[in-house]
UniProtKB/TrEMBL annotation:
Protein name: UDP-glucose 4-epimerase
Keywords: Isomerase, NAD
EC id: 5.1.3.2
NAD-dependent epimerase/dehydratase domain location: 7-249
Amino acid sequence: MEVKTAIVCGAGGFIGGHLVNRLKSEGYWVRGVDIKENEYGNTNADDFVVGDLRDYQLCQSLFDRPITEVYQLAADMGGAGYLFTGDNDAVVMHNSALINLNVAEASRLNKVKKIFYSSSACVYPEYNQMDPQNPKCTEDTVYPAAPDSEYGWEKLFSERLFLSFQKNYDISVRIGRFHNIFGPQGTWQGGKEKVPAAVCRKVAEAEDNGEIEIWGDGLQTRSFLYITECVEAVRRLMESDFMGPVNIGSEEMLSINDLAIMVAEIAGKTIRIKNIPGPVGVRGRTSDNHLISQKLNWAPSRPLLEGLTQTYQWIEKNVNATRNPSNENQVLDTAV
Ligand code: NAD
């Protein structure tokens, strides 16, 4: 039987690293590519290229053997502190758009059959996400477009880019709109971490009866999807005839303050929440899973609490290892 071959762009990152491992477990030959090595050593790629996808020659050089599938997850991204202050808008748009233009063109010229593009819930219009208890994020509400960040506008542009390639060329496209993916081996410090990891780190660092800071009034709502569920949905989408764009997220919505309370309970600590000014994004957001359940028969199989417990334990070990560097290797090897 012919071995399937895939390139995972962004394999040095969180979701890309997990996706490589999933494809390997399915028998694929996988080439990972990223501007950096996987921070946690979380990739079993057959070949890993450290290179800049903004460089078109680099993109071309990845196809020195026939590749059937490309998974395009590389992007200049981070949490609210990176994407929603406005300070990084130009680099985010420039870097991610260049990567997407290059990956689309190199994939086409090298006769890739199918390409997955990781879009985001950030494409949805701000005007439908003003009520924290009742956000509207069905796939068909994306237009008239009004994302609340330049990151979201770039994702929308690139959705259209890949769909245009499908329309005009012989390449099949699948688009997933991720909603807050979290789990072990995700960025948990340094300014690019997203809210579940940031809250886990703050709670892990806090003393019992201590205090943690949460940006905004904490009443803004979100939902969070555990990494293995995300990878399962991506694979189902790739295997199906349905191209999307489709939400890949959870419908278990809660406020950020409630998320912090949940993490504190996992940690067995009593924690006071101090709400402080900071970048928060839209007031409410959650995945709407009607379309994905209808087309792919998929829904998350585990509650938030389970994934959050795994994530907290992993981040707590990292926090402890940072305090005591002799434990560090022990933590980096921890798999999901
Ligand atoms: P991540 O930051 O961990 O991974 C992205 C990777 O892209 C990084 O390893 C980074 O080094 C790499 N990259 C950036 N610029 C590059 C370049 N010029 N050349 C090569 N590699 C480059 O992020 P992630 O959470 O794994 O997200 C993966 C994808 O999913 C991204 O496209 C992101 O926008 C999208 N997404 C993620 C979430 C989420 O909650 N994690 C939500 C919505 C969308």
